[in-house]
Specification:
The chain folds into two domains: about 5-250, P-loop containing nucleotide triphosphate hydrolases (Rossmann fold); about 255-380, Distorted Sandwich (Coagulation Factor XIII, Chain A, domain 1). About 25% of the residues lie in helices and about 35% in strands. The protein contains eight helices and 19 strands. A hairpin with a 2-residue loop joins strand 8 and strand 9. Helix 4 crosses helix 5.
């Protein structure tokens, strides 16, 4: 069996700060006349992708992960034929439907109804085939009231519901889905992820770009990790996701300084180690909202004093989640260990950093270390096979029941 997708040594170059428009022959002659010996500078060149090669077999669901700017969206645009590669070739053996950016593939002046038929025609479907799927598309997208309204008046959420409904229901052999699912609300994400699972069970091929590692692990058997425009890893999803979480996101869950002279601190305190572990003994490096965390610090106390530690947890957006202080203890000179436990079902899915403060006599700050550790908490699949961002700094699981009176 031949691969349904073959990517052979593709690279993509962009020119930063230069117009991407097409020049006429007259414009080219004018430029040459103005500066006939001018050479184009390579300083403005940026390679979004570098020598990418991989194969996908029919029916596979492949995840694509990586930091922002790694080349994920550029890769999908090349596979969608939106932009050509600078070098290399892509071979696709099937019809492709893509969900990349809000409004991609829609004509703003046409109604939702007209855009359904337009997209179907682009996929090579006959009108009768589109008619058979039409009601399912409208019901899934929940836009029946606005079906005959030009899509330029749609909200981004309505755009996405209709675009995904078209892409998933018109039965392409290859479905490309970018992170744009994040535009939708919780119910929309639930439906989309459920539909992608259904599509994969029907033997169609899916390439799925997401920053949600739980969704990637739930949907994808194998995953591609992109880093700086290159394939950093490609293999079983659990292995690739763990590698990404340990290196790709900037996670720093363990630091050690064995030499006290070089350890961070001052004449009062020197830090020996700092680490975050899953104290449920789960060996997976993936922290989820269900993971109980233990934060451990070892430090040398260099002068007798009454000491307590203050731990501040910050979100990636700079929001203080909480500030917790340890007991205050009179410490002699020596090596000490401090442990702070964060229970499961408390933190929201987010990226976090930890700031550590050492306080003397309950009021005098003697040393602080910002961003000593960083980590990411992932969402988990909930009842109904769905995910969705919960509002709020935390998402505690509290006793909250419904009982018959």
């Amino acid at each position: 069996m031949k691969p349904i997708i073959e990517v052979n040594h593709i690279s993509k170059k962009y020119r930063i700060g230069e117009k991407q428009s097409y020049y006429s022959f007259r414009d080219t002659l004018t430029d040459l006349a103005k500066s006939p010996f001018r050479k184009k500078s390579n300083k403005s060149e940026f390679w979004a992708l570098k020598d990418i090669s991989f194969k996908v077999m029919p029916g596979e669901v492949i995840g694509i992960i990586g930091r922002n700017g790694a080349g994920k969206s550029t890769l999908l645009k090349i596979l969608s034929r939106i932009t050509p590669p600078t070098t290399g070739e892509v071979i696709l053996r099937g019809r492709v439907a893509s969900l990349l950016e809000v409004g991609t593939g829609f004509h703003p002046e046409l109604t939702g109804r007209e855009n359904i038929y337009l997209n179907g025609a682009v996929l090579g479907m006959k009108r009768a085939e589109i008619n058979n799927k039409f009601d399912e598309i409208v019901e899934f997208a929940e836009i029946s009231k606005f079906l005959d309204t030009p899509v330029k008046f749609y909200s981004s959420g309505m755009y996405m519901r209709l675009a995904f409904a078209i892409a998933a229901h018109l039965e392409p052999e290859i479905l490309l889905v970018d992170e744009v699912l994040a535009v939708g609300d919780v119910e929309f994400q639930k439906k989309c992820l459920g539909k992608m699972k259904e599509v994969s069970k029907q033997g169609r091929t899916v390439l799925f770009v997401s920053h949600n590692m739980q969704a990637i692990q739930s949907l994808c058997k194998n995953t591609i990790l992109l880093k700086n425009g290159e394939i950093n890893d490609f293999g079983p999803t659990d292995k690739v996701v763990n590698k990404y979480l340990n290196t790709g996101l900037g996670n720093m869950t363990m630091k050690t300084w064995n030499n006290m002279k070089n350890a961070p601190g001052n004449q009062f305190i020197r830090i020996k180690s700092a680490k975050i572990i899953d104290f449920s003994n789960n060996k997976n490096s993936l922290f989820t909202v269900k993971t109980p965390l233990q934060i451990e610090f070892e430090f040398w106390n260099l002068a007798p004093a009454k000491i307590n530690l203050s731990l501040v947890l910050w979100s990636i957006a700079g929001e203080c989640i909480f500030n917790v202080g340890s007991d205050s203890k009179s410490l002699e000179k020596g090596l000490y260990k401090s442990i702070c436990k964060i229970p499961a079902d408390l933190l929201n899915d987010n990226a976090y950093s930890i700031h550590l403060f050492f306080v003397k006599d309950m009021s005098i700050g003697i040393y602080n270390h910002e961003n000593i550790l960083s980590f990411e908490v992932q969402d988990v699949e909930r009842e109904g096979n769905w995910y969705g961002k919960w509002i709020g700094a935390v998402r505690p699981k509290l006793e909250f029941n419904i009982e018959e009176k």
